[in-house]
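Weekly sync, protein design subgroup
Attendees: M.S., D.O., the rotation student, P.L. (late)

Item 1: inverse folding check
M.S. brought a backbone from last month's batch and wanted to see whether the design step gives back something sensible before we order anything. D.O. pointed out we never logged the input encoding, so this time it goes straight into the notes. Structure tokens as presented (339 positions):
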């Protein structure tokens, strides 16, 4: 048998599933488009992992990302943590002296500040898409340049066209104007890379002293144009990890390993047969107080297995009591909406 820890990072754009050996070797790396169906995506990824390594033995499971709660319930995760913790854990594992982490994914971006191997502060941008992977994909498509060549092309330009990077709408409008003025694609792309990095630093790094060593991860770290723009902005080398695209999944697998070794208990992993089980999330509004919480309830294999979203714990705590089924039946009048 091949022992491994499972790390799952479920984002709005992509889902990363990795298997790591107890010695820290990456055994498998699955990158999949979430396509608005995180549960289907995770099930498919787990199925592919089993096909790739038939004799794999899962020692522990961790989930992170925006879909970490659902994925955690589906898999029987031993650890469920946010992206900041997962990304920081992986980076510190590979680069213990890191001070600043730049992370740009498909739909959002983050900056994490580290001191003495601990997260001391962070900032996230989940509102504006400027600079994210999805925005760069769109611009590459519009310019008829394969995204794989996007960054390399920017390095061929001697000068950068001045692009407004504070907003996706302004950036695209500026790029169109620069094309009409006769700027080359290389100059426009270089200008875009530099504009987006300026916007990132000004928004997420505002009020903080950016200290080296710098580590840049996330899917966008594959774009050498963005990497060079970061180096120009901070005046220092920027490290891009070998597995930059799956650092969140690696971090959460390391945390799962730590939890299993600390507790001495076997994993809660439901097994690879979970792909054949029915798993249905839905929501309802609790009108018990003025908070009007939206409670997410998950039914797994015909039984309510998880609830969250209630600020007071009324519905969450009900699952730990013998009357949880009764509580569910007594609230049939609450409208359940599929999610």
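Designed sequence read out in the meeting:
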């Amino acid at each position: 048998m091949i022992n491994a820890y499972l790390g799952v990072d479920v984002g709005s754009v992509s889902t990363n599933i990795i298997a790591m050996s107890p010695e820290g070797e990456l055994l498998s790396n699955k990158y999949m488009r979430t396509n608005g169906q995180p549960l289907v995506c995770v099930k498919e990824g787990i199925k592919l992992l089993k096909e790739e390594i038939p004799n794999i033995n899962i020692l522990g499971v961790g989930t992170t990302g925006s879909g970490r709660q659902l994925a955690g319930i589906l898999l029987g995760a031993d650890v469920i943590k946010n992206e900041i913790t997962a990304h920081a854990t992986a980076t510190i594992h590979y680069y213990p002296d890191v001070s600043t982490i730049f992370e740009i994914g498909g739909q959002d971006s983050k900056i994490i500040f580290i001191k003495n191997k601990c997260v001391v502060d962070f900032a996230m941008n989940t509102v504006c898409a400027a600079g994210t992977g999805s925005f760069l994909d769109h611009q590459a498509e519009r310019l008829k340049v394969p995204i794989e060549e996007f960054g390399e092309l920017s390095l061929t330009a001697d000068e950068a066209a001045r692009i407004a990077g504070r907003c996706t709408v302004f950036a695209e409008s500026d790029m169109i104007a620069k094309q009409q003025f006769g700027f080359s694609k290389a100059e426009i792309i270089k200008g875009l890379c530099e504009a987006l990095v300026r916007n990132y630093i000004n928004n997420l790094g505002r009020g903080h002293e950016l200290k080296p060593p710098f580590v840049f991860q996330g899917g966008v770290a594959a774009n050498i144009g963005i990497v060079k723009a970061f180096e120009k902005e901070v005046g220092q080398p920027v490290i891009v990890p070998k597995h930059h695209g799956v650092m969140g999944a690696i971090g959460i697998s390391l945390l799962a390993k730590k939890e299993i070794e600390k507790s001495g208990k076997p994993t809660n992993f439901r097994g690879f047969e979970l792909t054949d089980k029915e798993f249905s999330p839905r929501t309802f509004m609790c009108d018990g107080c003025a908070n009007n919480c939206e409670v997410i309830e998950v039914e797994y294999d015909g039984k309510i297995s998880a609830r969250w979203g209630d600020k007071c714990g009324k519905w969450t705590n009900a699952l730990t009591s013998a009357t949880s089924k009764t509580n569910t039946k007594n609230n049939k009048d609450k409208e359940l909406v599929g999610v």
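Discussion: Residues 185-204 form the longest helix (20 residues). Confidence is low (pLDDT under 50) at residues 322-339.
Action: P.L. to compare against the previous round before Friday.
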